[in-house]
Amino acid sequence: MKENHISARAFKGEEPKEKYMKEALKLAKKAAELGEVPIGCVIEHGGKIIGRGYNRRKTDKNSLSHAEITAIRKASKKLDDWRLEGCTMYVTLEPCQMCSGAIVQARIPRVVIGCMNPKAGCAGSIMDILHEPRFNHQVETIYGMMEEECSEVLKDFFKKLRVRLKTEKSVN
């Protein structure tokens, strides 16, 4: 594990706060209610949530409507700056390549990830955009906060989706 990859259980220094991941989980569940893949994200600055987002790709019919992109957009507006220095992002699922790139571009210094995404994650699973030494910004990354809860929301969603699709297929 690289030195900037830190387990939430082993993190030394200012502890990441579960209350923010709990908020991200609430947003993930909101996405699930819309039939969206349940991913939620919050951005904290100075002890306050300044950006929130959840997956809305199907709802918005927009491939850019990821939880992280929405939260970054709202946080940037709140701070009136494209740089989100001094912020911490809490996200229920490891970011994809687009969101990882946006995190680097926004100069977010720290990201707390609930569970990993072995099929599309770009904070260490498939690629590691957040820690690419050739970029001018690398991100301190904390893995595994509320991992079981974050993973369970996704597993439950996909289990229900498979049942629904099987039922629809048998009706047709």
Describe the structure.
With 172 residues, the protein is an alpha/beta fold. Helix content is 39%, strand content 19%. It contains 5 helices and 6 strands, in the order βαββααβαββα. The protein has a 6-stranded mixed sheet with strand order 1-6-5-4-2-3. Helix 1 (18-33) runs parallel beside helix 5 (147-171). The termini are far apart. Mean pLDDT is 91; it is low at 8-12.
Quickly describe the structure.
With 172 residues, the protein is of the alpha/beta class. 39% of the residues lie in helices and 19% in strands. A six-stranded mixed β-sheet has the order 1-6-5-4-2-3.
List keywords for this structure.
single chain; 172 residues; alpha/beta; six-stranded mixed beta sheet; 5 helices; 6 strands; 39% helix; 19% strand; globular
Q: Count of helices?
A: 5
Number of strands: 6
Distance between the first and last residues' Cα: 49 Å
Q: What's the alpha carbon Rg, rounded to whole Å?
A: 16 Å
Strand order of the largest sheet: 1-6-5-4-2-3
Mean of residue pLDDT values: 91
Low-pLDDT stretches are: 8-12
The biggest sheet, with number of strands, parallel, antiparallel or mixed sense and barrel status, is: 6 strands, mixed
Structural class by sheet pairing and helices: alpha/beta
Outline the fold blueprint.
Blueprint: E1 5-7, H1 18-33, E2 40-45, E3 48-54, H2 57-60, H3 67-79, E4 87-93, H4 97-105, E5 110-115, E6 140-143, H5 147-171
Helix pairs in contact: 1-5
